[in-house]
Design goal:
By secondary structure, this protein is of the alpha/beta class. The protein is built from eight helices and five strands; from the N terminus they run H-E-H-E-H-E-H-H-E-H-E-H-H. The structure holds iron/sulfur cluster.
Length: 197
């Protein structure tokens, strides 16, 4: 069976939903940089900053402030800001602490952040929700998209599929990060990824 081309599905959705409102979960400014250049010309976009997986408040603020600065400088999207609530992450990863990066702990982490995005999208009357997570070559786009489509059915808000790393997306995010002088962390985010880095 051929793998699903999530990038193609995204391009189709950008056409079908042109001018509609998107709530896009962002893990950090560098990842969102390229993703926003792809979606913002087509959709009225708001970035959701919700990342309770981050290992400490200082890192959370640092990444969030870079997101705010990037949005201010580019005007690509508005921001829906969430407080740092590490207890949300701790609850869902109990028993999965020793998973390798990319394993079952990450699946739960993806779902936690995407579910918040679906919830806020529904609450705020957005037409679509999505995430920047698929720009990372280290993250399984198929798993992320399957979670997104499951949440679409649960919450009744359309999910924007993506595989942002396609068409040179990851490389482009590095170039944009350099251009805007964005802080690029060297670990995914949680204390386990920092420990294993
Ligand atoms: S490695 Fe990254 S995706 Fe996996 S649990 Fe940690 S922060 Fe979440």
């Amino acid at each position: 069976m051929n793998a699903v081309n999530y990038d193609r599905l995204m391009l189709n959705a950008l056409g079908a939903f042109a001018g509609k409102r998107l709530l896009l979960h962002s893990c950090c400014a560098p990842c969102s940089s390229y993703c926003l250049t792809e979606v913002a010309p087509h959709l009225r976009t708001t970035v959701l900053y919700y990342n309770p997986n981050l290992d400490c408040a200082e890192e959370y603020e640092k990444r969030k402030n870079e997101e705010i600065r990037f949005l201010k400088e580019t005007g690509l999207a508005d921001l829906l800001d969430c407080d740092y609530c590490p207890e949300d992450f701790e609850k869902v990863i109990v028993g999965y602490e020793n998973e390798r990066e990319g394993g079952a702990r990450c699946t739960r982490c993806f779902r936690l952040r995407l579910e918040k995005c679906a919830f806020e999208a529904k609450k705020g009357g957005f037409d679509l929700f999505g995430t920047t997570l698929t720009v990372s070559p280290l993250k399984d786009a198929e798993r992320i998209n399957e979670i997104g489509f499951a949440l679409e059915r649960e919450y009744g808000v359309s999910y924007l599929p993506s595989d942002f790393k396609k068409r040179g997306g990851y490389q482009r995010s590095i170039e944009l990060s350099k251009k805007y002088g964005l802080y690029r962390q060297n670990y995914c985010g949680c204390r386990f990824s920092k420990r294993d880095n």
